[in-house]
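Tokens for chain A. Residues wanted.
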């Protein structure tokens, strides 16, 4: 069955699988460490309440059988353990069917988490991990050569990911067409990294080169993924370089990292190591892979229709299993950065001269003198949603009030999501939230003050509030 197998991609399959296992490990670890405050039984958006109002067909999950925080923690840490085993090569020690079953475990567990995660798990890279993770189940181990069909489907994901992002930009903000978006993006992106300040201060012409290179990488290069080698490998290498540039310039959870992992499945690495002689695939395996092709072909109709639509949607799943999705990013780029600063006071009655102390978050800007940190591929879910809340209060309607209540209660799980709580001994009596405009300091301001940001007060987001 030479038409079925691609022995020359044996090494690229190995690299892809180890990279995917690493992303799984990060995702499950983040879920285990953050869930109690976000979606736990006493969380801001509790899972039991969500399951009670959402039907099974819209959110299939193992937690339909039973939910408790202990069960969720067991699910997340089990997923992390299986991911670590896959990273160590445990799938190579099993027969083919056992390796497929082992790769299915983290997919089922993470699907169960995402489908109860609500707004905290509404990011495009959640669906991307599930789509890629499902295809990985059928990629096989050292008992068979990598199936051509699965390798093609991985390229299909990579194509939709890049091409969808390119189209949404050209159809969206006019600054992409004028090549000026990156004059703002590095400052207004959701989670700046330690080098973002320096990227922002690159010369204007270089920002235009960045934008033009982005258009070429996302609108032209993806078509080369379906050409013969070495052109497909060149396309994957170009995408990898672009993703590494994005990794250096900001924090986008595991989106860029998983895109790099996807690109490795395209590379022809046979020159680095001679592929071993692998037997022909068993019939049952070939039938499963071809059935997978049929399922993906049918489910691709709506994402393709979305790509061709002038009203293209970003980051949408068309099925509850997240098998084939549509992707896109930054169809609109903000010109001004706004941040919500949350403060508390122990004064029994807040006055003009009250001692208001700020809560500091791990990733999002707060103290102007604090250098942005690198957290990706780890995903700081609360910090990301705070960025969205600053764009519009509608993004915070479901969770912001419970968040403030937990600060007023001094809830330990919630405080663990923060970098600094200014009330270590007792919770504050009042909490308020104010919106500030943040801008990067100039080179001169940075040398004079040591600050990375300059901020000015804009408006009140939440007036002083206390527990009822």
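Reply:
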């Amino acid at each position: 069955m030479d038409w079925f197998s691609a022995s020359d991609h044996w090494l690229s399959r190995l690299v892809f699988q180890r990279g995917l296992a690493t992303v799984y490990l990060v995702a499950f670890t983040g879920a285990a460490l953050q869930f109690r405050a976000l979606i736990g039984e006493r969380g801001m958006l509790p899972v039991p309440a969500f399951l009670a109002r959402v039907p099974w067909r819209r959110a299939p999950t193992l937690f339909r059988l039973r939910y408790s925080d202990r069960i969720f923690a067991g699910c997340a840490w089990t997923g992390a353990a299986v991911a670590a085993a896959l990273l160590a090569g445990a799938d190579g020690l099993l027969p083919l069917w056992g390796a497929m079953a082992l790769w299915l475990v983290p997919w089922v567990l993470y699907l169960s988490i995402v489908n109860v995660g609500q707004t905290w798990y509404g990011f495009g890279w959640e669906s991307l991990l599930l789509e890629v993770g499902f295809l990985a189940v059928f990629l096989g181990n050292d008992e068979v050569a990598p199936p051509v069909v699965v390798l093609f489907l991985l390229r299909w994901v990579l194509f939709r990911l890049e091409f969808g992002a390119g189209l949404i930009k050209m159809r969206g903000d006019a600054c992409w067409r004028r090549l000026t978006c990156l004059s703002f993006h590095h400052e207004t992106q959701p989670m700046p990294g330690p080098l973002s300040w320096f990227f922002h201060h690159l010369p204007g012409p270089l920002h235009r080169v960045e934008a033009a290179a982005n258009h070429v990488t996302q609108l032209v290069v993806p078509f080369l993924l379906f050409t013969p080698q070495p052109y497909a490998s060149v396309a994957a290498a170009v995408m990898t370089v672009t993703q590494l540039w994005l990794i250096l310039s900001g924090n986008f959870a595991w989106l860029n990292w998983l895109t790099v992992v996807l690109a490795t499945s395209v590379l022809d690495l046979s020159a680095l190591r001679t592929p071993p002689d692998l037997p022909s695939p068993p019939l049952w395996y070939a039938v499963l892979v071809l059935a997978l092709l049929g399922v993906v072909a049918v489910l691709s109709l709506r994402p393709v229709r979305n790509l061709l639509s002038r009203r293209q949607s970003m980051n949408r799943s068309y099925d509850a299993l997240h098998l084939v999705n549509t992707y896109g990013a930054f169809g609109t780029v903000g010109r001004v950065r706004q941040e919500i600063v949350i403060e508390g006071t122990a004064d029994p009655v807040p006055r003009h001269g009250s001692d208001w102390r700020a809560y500091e978050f791990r990733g999002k800007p707060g103290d102007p003198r604090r250098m942005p940190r690198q957290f990706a591929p780890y995903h700081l879910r609360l910090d990301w949603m705070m960025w969205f809340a600053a764009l519009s209060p509608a993004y915070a309607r479901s969770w912001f009030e419970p968040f403030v209540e937990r600060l007023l209660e001094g809830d330990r799980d919630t405080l663990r999501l923060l970098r600094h709580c200014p009330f270590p001994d007792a919770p504050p009596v009042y909490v308020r939230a104010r919106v500030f405009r943040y801008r990067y300091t100039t080179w001169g301001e940075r040398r004079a003050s040591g600050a990375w940001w300059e901020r000015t007060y804009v408006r009140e987001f939440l007036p002083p509030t206390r527990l009822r």
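The mean pLDDT is 95. Strands lie at 316-317, 325-326, 337-345, 357-358, 360-361, 418-420, 430-440, 453-465.
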